[in-house]
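dumping this here before i forget
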Amino acid sequence: MTSAPRALPAVGSVIERAAIRALAERWTTPMVTDAVRAIIAAARTGSALPSDDPAWVAAIDARLTEQTRPSLRAAINTTGVVLHTNLGRAPLARAALAAIGEIAHGASTLEYDAERGVRGSRHTHCARLLCELTGAEDAIVVNNCAAGLVLALQALAAGRETIVSRGELVEIGGSFRVPEIMTASGTTLVEVGTTNRTHADDYRRALSPRTAAIVKVHRSNFVIEGFTAEATVRDLRPIASEAGIPLIHDFGSGLMLDLSAWGLTGELTVPETVRDGATCIIMSGDKLLGGPQAGIVLGTREAIGRLRRHPLARALRVDKLTLAALEATLALYRDPVRARREIPALAMLTERPEVIRARAVAVADAITSATRVAVAIEACEATVGGGAFPTARIPSFAATIANDAPSLEARLRHGAIPVVGRIAEGRLWLDLRSVPPEDDAVLVQMLLGALQQGAR
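structure:
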């Protein structure tokens, strides 16, 4: 029962109890005191007051455990969206995790040239490998793709005009829009063409003495079909070259390998894009590349040199852990077969459906044998996510549960390791394609906990 206000104990009388004082060894006295104060305050508004010392200990422990839980936590993605933007995009390869651990624990050669014994530059660490893998002349890494676009426009087009197609003024998520990013970079947009049709001549006619660059934006998160036309990088390269201005290609997803054998078609790879000849190519590190969040700018030596020398490059530079993870991820691409096997994003996208089904069956069997809750295996379709291959559907399988689906979905989200699924047709769907295989056991553990909690 809820205690009446006059029966509420003083904070001091509670924390003097031996059982409560013992908690201070784990949580500290100020934290325990604050928890006791909060529990008593809640009782004033109708919450039940702990009835004895064990109940007080349990209530304080529960409150402080929740209060000290990290905001950024590991989660399990069973949505079927492999590169889920809200769930951290690409999981890192073991090689990348090992590289982070090696660099994080002590000193490193972040900005030190060990061969010559002089100050070095962090911009050199991934550049050679990026050039080797893509054929670019030079490269610079910043903290995300939007930062790469901002830096390129600041260094190459600030205070002047930039030509862009109306059909490429896209929103990239989180209400961030390419035209707003470009305007914030200090360049004046000159829009050409229409939403569905833009021709090379539209760019040519827009050239003026104030033109500083042409920007080509890859529409990675949607498609326009029907009565359409667009100018490719190959179409625009001679126009930019004749005008003596850079051609900047916001490429987006960073696809390094041809995945058409797995049904993922219609996207150029990064090496193919480099060969098309844009002055700068900008892409993400944490999408189809499968690495950490980063903005990778590939380009000519002259253009990348200007980006490196720009003051904004320091504000947008990446830290040693990002560089370590990115370099280790890129190194895997020297062997494409190994890259597809060891980079989790690629492994999940290309795994055979029958393997996904076998994993879903194993999860279902573990749940059914422990709880007698009915779990069905259903065929479904996964998606790539991350603004890549927007129309692609990948055959997959899910473990589905109809028993109290909305409540179970909520309990899974609130678990120690949140499990994020989806509800459809009155069932909770847990798509195994977006789950790294090593997380299957944890998924079962979280499911059992949520089901047992619901049975109380």
